[in-house]
Amino acid sequence: MTENKIEPKADAQGDKLDAIMSLLGKTMTRLDEMEKNLPAPPLVTAADKKAKKDDDSKHRKDDDEEDDRKDDDEEDDRKDDDMKMKKHRKDDDSEKPAPMEKSDAEGSNPVVHGKAGEIKPDDDEEESKMDDDEEAAKNDEDEAVMADCQAKADSVYSAFGKSASRPLSGESLTAYRKRMVRGLQAHSDEMKNVNINAIKDEAMLAVVEKRVYADAIAASRGTGAIAKGQLIELHKKDRAGRTITEFRGDMEAWLGDFKLPAYRVMKFNTENFKR
Q: Positive or negative CA dihedral for 80, 81, 86, 90?
């Protein structure tokens, strides 16, 4: 029963395929006939190619000559315009009144007024420029001196594990030096009671500064006196490059906070020993 159903379907598909192939064959035959009826392309000889090349080169040459003529015409027009402008300017200059000649006292002295065609600057501008240069040079010098003082103080402060602070805004050099000395004054027994702010003489300030710095360095190395209740932190390097921290000074500076208050015996309780 199944075979009877499949055979008619296969015959129908075969008929469709035959019809398609027949149609394609007719189409190809018609295209071949159309190609035969097309006109053949015209023959181009070597003489025709040469003639065409000569015509193209001639046209290009004519175009270049025409462009050159246009450029020459434009250049002539520009020259004519320049000549007219010069003539017009010359006429205007001739119509202006001639300037009055100045006497020697009015402006002919080259020492006072400079050479001809040269504009001599005003004296006020020169003085102002000189003042600005001098002020800038002075500011640079003050900053350099301030930096040297900071480096000097920092070398002493670093011995105590600290660093010298930077100058405050608007602080003078003398005020900065006094402030740095006051920070290390407690390490000097000789100078710890001196009123640093009352020093007015620069030479005296230099003597006090040198002494305080020397005593502070000695105190940081344990060779000088250390104020009571003060503990100094020292940093050293061993051969392996490791940082070792040591402390010198009064042990009560840190140990006193951990001590218990002192007790005193007021009475002995002997009641437990009575019989």
A: positive
Helical H runs in 96-194? Answer: 104-107, 110-113, 123-157, 173-184
Place of tokens 């250390």: 226
All residues at 6 or more sequence positions from 113 whose CB lies less than 8 Å from its CB, including other chains? 107, 120
Strands (E), 7-123: none
| Six-digit token string for 227 | 């104020």
Total structural domains within the chain? 1
Tell me the per-residue pLDDT of 73-87, one tens digit each, with 9 for 90 and over.
777 777 777 777 777
Instruction: Give CA 190 to chain center in angstroms.
Output: 50
Instruction: Count other Cβ atoms within 10 Å, centred on residue 153.
Output: 23
Does residue 269 sit within a domain? no
Joined together, the tokens standing for residue 73 give 């015409």
Q: Is the pTM of this model over 0.70?
A: no
3 state DSSP class of 235: strand
Written as one letter, the residue type at 271 is: E
Q: Is residue 211 part of a domain?
A: yes
- Looking at residue 114, its pLDDT comes to 54
Segment holding 248, helix H or strand E: strand 243-249
